[in-house]
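Lecture 7, part 2: worked example. A protein chain together with 4'-deoxy-4'-aminopyridoxal-5'-phosphate.
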Amino acid sequence: MNAPIRYAEALLTGMLGTFGLDIEYVRAEKNTLYYLDEDGAEVPVLDLIGGWGSLMLGHNHPEIVSYAKELLDTGWPTHSQHSSHPVADQVGAALNQIIGRELPGAEPYTITFANSGAEGIETAVKHCEFDRVLRLKTLFEEIEWNADVALKAVLGGSAALPDDTSLLPGEVPAPTTIEEFGALLGAVAEHNIARAGTSPVFFALERAFHGKLVGSLQFTFNPIFRAAFASLGPAVNFVPPNDAEAFESAVAAHRVTVLDVQVVDGKVTLVERDLPVIAGLIVEPIQGEGGIHALTAEFAARIRQICDTVQCPIVVDEIQSGMGRTGKFLASSHIGLLGDYFVLGKSLGGGIAKSSVILIRQSRYRPEFELVHSSTFAKDGFSTAIARRTIEILEADDGAAYDRAAERGERILGMLRELAAEFPDVVVDVRGKGLLIGVEFADQSQASSPVIREKARAGLLVFQLGSYLELAHHIRTGPTASVPTMLRIEPSIHISDQEIEQMRTGLTEVCRILRHQDALPLVYPLSGAGGQQAPRTEVEDFRPAAVEEAAPAEPATAKVGLISYPLTPDMLREFDPSLAALDDDRLLGYARRSELLKDLPAFAPVRYESPQGTSADLTVYPLLVTQQQLREYQVAGQTFLIGIDLDRRVRAARADGCQTVGLGFGLGSVSDHGRALRVPGITLTTGSALAAGSALAAVESAATERFGDLGELTMAVVGGGGQIGSALAALGAGQFGKIVLVGSGRPGSAERLRAAELGIYQEAWSRIAAGGELGGIPAALAAEPLVAGWLAEGRSGDEPSGAAIAAHLADAHDVNPFVVTTDDLLSVGNAQVVFSAHSSAVPVLDEKHLADGSILCDLSFFGTGAEANAISARDDIRYVRGGIVSVSNHPTPPRGVSASLGAGELLAGVAEAITLALSGSSARPTDGGASTRARVDAIVGLAREHGFETTTT
Ligand code: PMP
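Predicted complex, written out as structure tokens:
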């Protein structure tokens, strides 16, 4: 059955699926979410995210649920806007009472309702600006009045003209006549008007999180969320938390004044007045998404002072920290932070409703705001009633819920501190207050396990750890929005001792995994259907014995990248040895699961020195994709999907300084030989020219030795439609009399064989047109009337000619005398020389296919020599490994491309990329289409100059 199409956040759900977190929960209570297993049985999961802070009272608190039912059963109106709403007032009264208790001396706060945290923040910001504009209006009215008073005083003779105009920019002389005074008033008004349009200045703290709507987002620090939308809202100045001096100087830097004309001691005088440009400061008393950082009481006191002097309102965002989560109703109460505004959300909805409120100190409140602001759903009957009941439950028994939050929080923190003491190498910090807690793990971006390292580098370490906790321990944790190494723990007050112990067990395992760099427990649950026993249950130690100190080397002349993938499961085991115990199916299952996150960390660079004096560092950039998946992309016409991955990796190589990048193991064939990639500043090669060239060189000498003249021989190419296969065919045609191209019979194969056939004719014609001595197929083709005619006309060798020759041959001959295309492997038996250039991991040929005494050049499965064993019983056959070059001064093959390479050997395709880098060449050997003899000869020659010899083993 096909998976259902996802319409809602398919990418996000897909990425969660990469970590096995795309779980459908069907029921929830307290701190437990349930999903159904394959047999329909409920599986409980301990929920430590708690609706991202919305579940102070847990999932489906029974009293709230029964109250909600009661509301619905009694027909309580949810929507009755523009009517009296006593419940909303009651919520306001209850909150005022709490604020009065926790922050003694606070004046009353009005209450405005909204639907979400971000909307609450935007409403507060909107009110701040409304207030500022009204303050601006009042100031200008005063200035206008004062100017009028001054003018009248001068005219009436009760005030002297001003004698100091230095506050006005420019050299403005003091007025001596009433006309000049009139002009001065005009200049002052102009000056003021120019400044009146100064944009409002808002302040927020670095690491802040205040929401993701276009307005609230401007106050959210993390540029990952904000950057693309920065032009959609107010420019916000971010200042460091707990640094009052920095805030004070930022405020001072934004001071703007206007001029007032006042009568002082019988003289008209210019006076500076502060323009209200500073609209507000928004703070979280404990930054949640920013990584659980608390403000200090000292900072709270200082910002209060500074803001009072410039009339800047302080908006306190208690959306996450409020509602009792930290042991008091407001986290601000711990530090005596008296906000001009408080914003609450999340748990205010009792875990079932969506609601937020903005509390505004009465002396700063602008009642006219109610006439310009509204929202259909805000202050609805249902959520206000639920908010009222939620507050009642929290306040019951003298605020027992707050005490419980504090006590449970301490217990969790105590457990986590013990863990941190046991694993100081793994846990860098444990912090929080009450039930707002973060566990910060050590950065793993230099981890020795590549699986762990790559996830850390991608900023996804907590997802990987969360995946393990969820799948192996049935514990659901969350990330924070800004600290990729922090697990967030925000359970409800119902968390039990037993659940805290469950947490301890899971987190202890996480610490052991990280300490020992054992990726198997992380990967195993993602590697296939559950049920089976893991190959081992104990964490094992995979820490490297000693850290190798790399000798500081002179930088290489060039850097070359190779994009590859683990061709066989063994290569994946070699890549991360902790995965060795996983069987092939599990490893392939893991690769499949990683569809959306294929990057694996690059291997350490390996240096190649050329006899010409240049050097190149080769870095392998692997992708976690299998041969099978690549084939599926091809069959489904979705090679663009792997194209996206290739593009990203090629760009990564470029960013690392690579000028040349090779696409290994047939990645060229899924990217139109790299042409589908649009990455400027990079020479891309698929390496097929040197692979074909070195194989032909090896075979031509062996065949001449065995058979003499090649012109009478037939050569067969298994995988004749592939890039290397078609290059071999086009070039081999120059010597051989007949060519058999064998395809796989899979979709698209016939078309690829046809293209290869036309390539043979095209190359043949260009050789004929070039003149000189001809052999093989070109020699015979030159005698065909069509071709002879072209020659007489002087037609150019570059003219597209393959299709015309093919049409001519079909007309002129019953059976094509030169080229056979087929998917029948038995036709290989007609050839004296056979190239195996297919991409199948299993042998395609066996003994019965090959003619007596024939030569087999094996480039199968990207140079891994897949055919070797299948024909080992035939000692009449000359077996030549193809697609390999030898590099005498570099005995150890690089990791990640080492599939079955011996000492001093290298895949020709990789050698091509290195050769190009060593020679500083920016010409792609396969640019402009198929490999031509000239191009191939050139790259073979160049490779030799740089120390790569074609082998004949
Ligand atoms: N402010 C803070 C401090 C928050 O933690 C959040 C949500 N994590 C918001 C605002 C935004 O709330 P919402 O997601 O309901 O818009």
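Residues 432 and 581 are 39 Å apart (CA to CA). The two ends are 50 Å apart (CA to CA). Keep this in mind for problem set question 3.
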